[in-house]
Amino acid sequence: MDSLEHPSGVVALIKPPGISSAKFLNEFKNITGFKKVGHAGTLDPAAEGILVTLVGKATRLAEYFQNLEKFYIMHVLFGIKTNTGDLEGEVIEEKKEFELSEDKINSVLSKFQGWIEQIPPMFSAVKHKGKRLYKLARKGVEVVRSPRKVFVKSITLRSLEDNIAVIELITGKGVYARQIAVDIGETLGIPSTVKKLVRVAVGDFSLNKALTLEDIKKAVFKEESFLLNMNKALYFLPTFKASWEVVSKIANGQVVQTKLELNGKVKLISPDGEFVAIVDAFKGVIKPEKVFLKR
Q1: Measuring CA to CA, which residue among 170, 178, 94, 173 is closest to residue 134?
Q2: DSSP designation for 240
Q3: How far is residue 282 from each of residues 167, 245, 260, measured CA to CA in Å?
Q4: Is 162 part of the annotated catalytic residue set?
Q5: Does residue 175 contact residue 150 with C-beta atoms inside 8 Å?
Q6: Which residue in 2, 44, 86, 103 is the catalytic one?
Q7: For the chain, which end, N or C, has fewer CB atoms within 10 Å of the first or last residue's CB respectively?
Q8: Vertex 219, ends 218 and 220: CA angle to 5°?
């Protein structure tokens, strides 16, 4: 069990625009006093919305939350292109006269749905020979980046007003939404950039259930709990309630033969409902992957 001094859990925070995810989480740490804090997928400084935040032992769970679907609302401004893909950067291309319509945009959106190849932007946290691309970009250095296969579940035009298109995106892991905005413009022959990007949900973590730093300050002042325990936070993994014998073996790192019919990643809990471990299951054999309850 976690002590009050060393809590573990998950909270969906609302990051405002104009601050990096790292600086935002530092503010969160300063407010709460939590020592160990991480996230399950960064947001650009200019972007806003859901940042799934992990505290204490829950930081070991980042990879599982990263695989959840991301839901974005993206405002794409046509007529200019910047070196960052959003309004934080310098304008590198401009076009004042062009034809734009909903039909024209819809005609190219299918190119950005399903499995697509995407070249990471220079202003990103991807590493090249041990150095972050954005650090190289700030020095005016551009390097060749290999395309990556990423998955876009759906991309839909919600509205077009003047030169701003509002596009809804549901994506898998590792998709750069602002790069899609830039690529849409290039496909149409019109420079484009992101004017506003909001991540409205990550899996079931949505804006209407998320907290601002002001909410956190109030909760800390009132000594109210706001962390979702790891068991509840991992709602998307199938659950196996094991016997104490199995729990003991898994907690000690042993591989166990069971009658479990599930395959893949499984959340293992004890007979009294306590979260024990994430295990790899295959044909009844379960292998501990990450153990949280020691025996």
Answers
A1: 178
A2: E
A3: 40, 19, 9
A4: no
A5: yes
A6: 44
A7: N
A8: 90
Domains belonging to the chain, first-starting first, are 9-67+204-231 (3.30.2350.10), 70-202 (3.30.2350.10), 237-291 (2.30.130.10)
Residue 94: which of 27, 193, 162, 209 has the closest Cα?
193
Please tell me what DSSP assigns to residue 83. Answer: S
Integer Rg of the chain from CA: 22
Tracing tokens 């399950």 back to the chain, one arrives at 40
CA distance 128 to 114: 27
Nearest by Cα to 109 from 160, 174, 49, 47: 160
- DSSP-based three-state secondary structure for 118: strand
Going residue by residue through the chain, which has 295 residues, state the pLDDT in tens, using 9 for 90 and above.
444 457 899 999 999 999 999 999 999 999 999 999 999 989 989 999 999 999 999 999 999 999 999 999 999 999 999 988 999 889 999 999 999 999 999 999 999 999 999 887 766 566 656 666 666 667 676 676 778 899 999 999 999 999 999 999 999 998 999 999 999 999 999 999 999 999 999 999 999 999 999 999 999 999 999 999 999 999 999 999 999 999 999 999 999 999 888 899 999 999 999 999 999 999 999 999 999 976 5
Query: Which amino acid belongs to residue 252?
Result: N
Q: Do the beta carbons of residue 78 and residue 182 sit within 8 Å? A: no
